[in-house]
Amino acid sequence: MNNQPYLSVIVPAYNEAKNFHKGTLDSIYEYLQREPFSWELILVNDGSSDSTLSLLEQFAASRQSVRVINNPHQGKAAAITSGVTESHGEIILFTDMDQATPITEMANLLPEFSRGYDIVIGSRKDRKGAPIYRQILAYGMIILRGLILRLPIRDSQCGFKAFTASSARKIFSILAKIHPPRVLSGPAVNPGFDVEILYLGRKLGYRLAEVPVIWTHQESKRVRFAQDAISGLKELLLVRFRSLTNAYGLKS
User: Fold this and answer.
1) pTM of the predicted model as reported, rounded to 2 decimal places
2) CB < 8 Å & 24+ apart, contacts of 116-119
3) Do 122 and 211 contact (CB within 8 A), yes or no?
4) Predicted confidence band at 84 (pLDDT cuts at 50, 70, 90)?
5) d(Cα 243, Cα 86) in Å, to the nearest integer?
6) Mapping DSSP to helix (H, G, I), strand (E, B) and coil, where does residue 62 land?
7) What's the pLDDT at 229?
8) Residue 84: exposed, middle, or buried by beta-carbon count in 10 A (0-12, 13-18, 19+)?
9) What are the structural domains, with CATH classification, of the chain?
């Protein structure tokens, strides 16, 4: 394996023992092994309270090009940020442990980098199987995103995104200053995280491509309709406020 792999795949994990036993990490690893380019798989434990950490460590110990980062529980955003910081790839991709969008979909994202794009995101083709409240949240987010941030993206929330190393490091270095680490309790999903990444990418002038991907609804106790709707609106307004007050330190 080269000193600098072509691809870094980051998988954040919080209480993911159930998904681990379903073989989701095995499917990711086996797919990557068939690729002709060099890669690394970075598993970030987000302070799990179940057996996730030991399972990840056992998985990494018996496989090449896999490593584990163990963090206190700070939420998905912090887990991905630490993965980006520790990555070495020319391209950095993050994907969810439940594989709602399977790793095989990266075959649709990676070619866009050779066309000059800096950020390539998965856009769910449809939301079949998703509860009605999830669909309402999704379409509400599209409308609010356009009104508040003027961000012309169909699906900002799909957990399947890839970046050039330079764009990822610039964006996440800004986020690290805005969102200092803090220990949390219970499930912590920040609905504004994905939007803020893409908003910063656009403000920084990076070229962004949105690519249709397969997505299968996975049941999660971490999604709460009323709380997530309010939190989503609040996060959009905060991103707008930070931009207006130049909290990101970007030129207009």
Assistant:
1) 0.90
2) 116/207, 117/207, 117/208, 117/209, 118/163, 118/164, 118/166, 118/167, 118/201, 118/206, 118/207, 118/208, 119/161, 119/162, 119/163, 119/164, 119/167, 119/198, 119/201, 119/206, 119/207, 119/208, 119/209
3) yes
4) very high
5) 27
6) coil
7) 75
8) buried
9) 7-244 (3.90.550.10)
